[in-house]
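Example S7 (structure tokens).
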């Protein structure tokens, strides 16, 4: 690990990669986590900012279509200024800092100011976009050379800085950055200087992202095709015979959910796993949490139960949240899992069981059906009359377990371990996507995600906005809530897990 100097801070120039946040290097991710200040670009995926420290200062320093948020000299000055305050600065740049990223200019400014720095390379757009489009930039049957070229030259320049004659010779692959505005001139120059007008061309927009779009043609017709399709930046232009391999080698945009926009309504701290599952199948995921999970208003009832754990025969968990808050509070009281003693444990759902396993506990009772009725049915197979159960629950749950177990002769103590509440506001990005009919599917993983969304939007507006949107529900209880609110349920897996729900969504769209 590099240490900052006593006088000045330290600057990391980090290549954020072309778009897919998974393409950040391990070192890049570590440096983001060390930074006091992060200056990030338009093309740096926002998910990378989640690796920053909670107290890090985030500064947007990008530009869209030539419209600068900050000029380059201002960015240079800011890097110097922040470092001279003794801060560790992460300069997060799309692609690679030293390939059309102006990283060299920023480093020169740091050298002049005497600021120590480090460059963390990234996957450049040409490499990432081509790979995700199924186009090998080199292939021994087609070409053994590749050139990266700026496409950002002004059409008003009297003399081009690009050696078009040299580029047009042979059959080397050419990749133009920032060239969409000049696409007609680029194609014309290559043809004039000797490239065949039938040379294949691919335009890759938003390469490596779920919204990636690829348009193919030839030098003769690609500009007209792009104009007709409204194909705009950010995109790279790939010219060469290797483009012919795309139909054979394409993999990214052939995944079952590619091109589908799916809205995930889980709580913020739980949405990530599900979103990654859907993203792995190619979906473009939009997260809009409709639940906020918080501690109870008072721990008095839970604390009383925790201090008397030896008096319980059973401990019942119906969610991973219940496990999390139970053991967190147990630790805050100076206790750990040993306090459970001989108390047996019941868990609803495989995720709840996995959460328990994280605390070194294996569930003694795990119903095959992932809902409260399954717990009661499983206990009904045992002689539990006269036994006592502790059921740490959410503040708003159905009373199935309480009534069902009481009917079996059990005494059930059910303190509130956590609360589920509405978010403070509804995502403007999500609302715009719904209003513009840009959502293909919405997922609900509990009844509260449905009812909370209805509360946030209003029931009539909910039905209106979800017209034509496929509804995926995790299980029968959630589906019943959907139908009560007037929604049609299109997908419901046999097993109530997010993995099964993701597979059900895949099956639904594959069949269509």
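Recovered sequence:
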């Amino acid at each position: 690990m590099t240490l900052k100097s006593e006088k000045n801070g330290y600057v990391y120039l980090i290549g954020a990669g072309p778009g897919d946040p998974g393409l950040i290097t391990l070192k890049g991710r570590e440096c983001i986590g060390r930074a006091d200040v992060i200056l990030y670009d338009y093309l740096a995926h926002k998910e990378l900012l989640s690796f920053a420290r909670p107290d890090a200062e985030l500064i947007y320093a990008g530009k869209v279509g030539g419209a600068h948020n900050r000029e380059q000299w201002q960015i240079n000055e800011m890097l110097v200024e922040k470092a001279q305050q003794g801060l560790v600065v992460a300069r997060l740049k799309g692609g690679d800092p030293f390939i059309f990223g102006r990283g060299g200019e920023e480093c020169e400014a740091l050298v002049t100011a005497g600021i120590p720095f480090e460059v963390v390379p990234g996957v450049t757009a040409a490499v990432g976009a081509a790979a995700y489009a199924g186009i090998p930039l080199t292939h021994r049957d087609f070409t053994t050379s590749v050139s990266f070229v700026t496409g950002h030259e002004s059409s008003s320049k009297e003399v081009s800085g690009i050696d078009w004659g040299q580029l047009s010779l042979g059959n080397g692959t050419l990749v133009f950055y920032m060239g969409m505005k000049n696409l007609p001139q680029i194609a014309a120059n290559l043809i004039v200087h000797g490239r065949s007008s039938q040379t294949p061309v691919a335009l890759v927009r938003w390469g490596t992202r779920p919204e990636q779009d690829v348009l193919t043609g030839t030098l003769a017709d690609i500009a007209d095709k792009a104009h007709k399709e409204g194909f705009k930046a950010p995109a790279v232009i790939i010219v060469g015979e290797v483009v012919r391999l795309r139909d054979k080698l394409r993999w990214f945009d052939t995944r079952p959910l590619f091109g589908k926009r799916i809205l995930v309504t889980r709580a913020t701290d739980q949405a990530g796993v599900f979103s990654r599952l859907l993203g792995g199948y190619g979906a473009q995921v939009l997260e809009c949490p409709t639940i906020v999970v918080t501690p109870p208003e008072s721990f008095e009832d839970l604390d009383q139960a925790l201090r008397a754990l030896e008096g319980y025969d059973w401990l019942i968990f119906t969610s991973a949240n219940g496990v999390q808050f139970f053991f967190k509070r147990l630790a805050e009281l100076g206790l750990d899992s040993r306090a459970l003693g001989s108390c047996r444990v019941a868990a609803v759902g495989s995720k709840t069981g996995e959460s328990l396993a994280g605390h070194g506990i294996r569930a003694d009772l795990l119903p095959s059906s992932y809902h409260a009725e399954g717990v009661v049915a499983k206990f009904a197979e045992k002689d539990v009359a006269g036994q006592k159960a502790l059921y740490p629950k959410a503040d708003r749950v159905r009373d199935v377990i309480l009534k069902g177990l009481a009917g079996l002769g059990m005494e059930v103590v059910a303190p509130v371990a956590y609360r589920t509440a509405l978010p403070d506001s509804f995502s403007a990005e999500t609302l715009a996507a719904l209003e513009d009919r840009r959502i293909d599917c919405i997922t609900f993983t509990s009844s509260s995600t449905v009812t909370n969304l209805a509360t946030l939007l209003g029931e009539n507006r909910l039905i209106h906005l979800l017209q034509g949107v496929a509804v995926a529900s995790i299980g029968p209880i959630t589906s019943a809530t959907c139908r009560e609110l007037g929604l049609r349920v299109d997908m419901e897996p046999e097993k109530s897990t997010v993995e099964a729900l993701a597979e059900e969504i895949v099956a639904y769209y594959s069949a269509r």
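Notes on this example. The mean pLDDT is 91.
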